Amino acid sequence: MSWFIDFPVPESPFPISHQSKILSLGSCFAQTIGQKMETSKFDILINPFGTIFHPLNLADLLEMAVNENSPNLQGILERDQSFFHYQAHSDLRGKTKEELIDLFQFQLQKTKTYLSEGSHLILTLGTSWIYELDGYGPVANCHKQPQKLFRKRLTTIEEMEKGLVGILQKVLSLNPKLKIVLTVSPVRHIKDGIPENQLSKSLLRVLCSNLENQFESVSYFPAYEILMDELRDYRFYKSDRIHPSEEAENYIWEKWKKAIFDSETQEKVKEIEKINLELAHRPMNPDSDSYRKFLENLLAKLERLNGEFDFSREIQLIENRLHGSN
């Protein structure tokens, strides 16, 4: 007897392999799935501007990268002896205004490189609610400033669609071979309110469908639906009841691998994941002959795969363990 409805996720028409060059932008799912892919030795750039929740904020950053625009200096603010920008997450910060702008420019340049040379762009949309700063416009992050400075509103499908269609056309003109994977983040924005969060997610889902219908190079992965319909129980959330638990993240990752990776890549990922488990192994007696044999076998596997993937850091780690150094 099955305790939940398991729905099939269609295989991607544009599968990802280890030869792919990937840019992952957006909400928490972009970070989570990106980090899992990075650990599995994919060439991926993950949220160079930090976590970004709203489609129009993502469109603005992509526009800046494609057009090689400089960040708006009016968007800089100082807090706790650090400088931030309203168009980026607080992960992007500098000790001075100049350091912040240099870092922002560097991330924009990296983003353009992955857009122009890459094979896949993953966009994860988090919310339809947007904050606008008086005298400035939409912001990606309020940076703990007083809420009275901002106006919160629900953006329409037409507004979000116009913003994303415009930039996706420019991105595909820059790189016609680029494939785009859209997802709606399964993270619940309950601070907006439960009905308001559901309305927000519904708008994003319709937006993704509209974009998928307009662009042949766009496909959709149902991360939101997997958590809402297959894993519809609070035990699949962390203690905040907002973010998916590690178990839920791993479940969605398994679905992602089967739908997004081709069969050969799935086998490679399985092999790499096994090696990562062995790398994390901690013995009861690190001086035992059995552990030394374990390390020697692991080193042989790493050296065999190092020609295909960069395991140089891991090889150095195992060699240090074999020679008794940290």
From TrEMBL:
Gene3D superfamilies reported in the protein's UniProt record: SGNH hydrolase
Top-rank taxon, per record: Bacteria
Segments forming domain GSCFA: 21-256
InterPro entries found in the cross-reference section: GSCFA, SGNH_hydro_sf
Molecular-function annotations in GO: hydrolase activity, acting on ester bonds
Any single Pfam family the record assigns to this protein: GSCFA
Protein name: GSCFA family protein
Annotated source species: Algoriphagus boseongensis
Phylogenetic classification of the source organism: Bacteria, Pseudomonadati, Bacteroidota, Cytophagia, Cytophagales
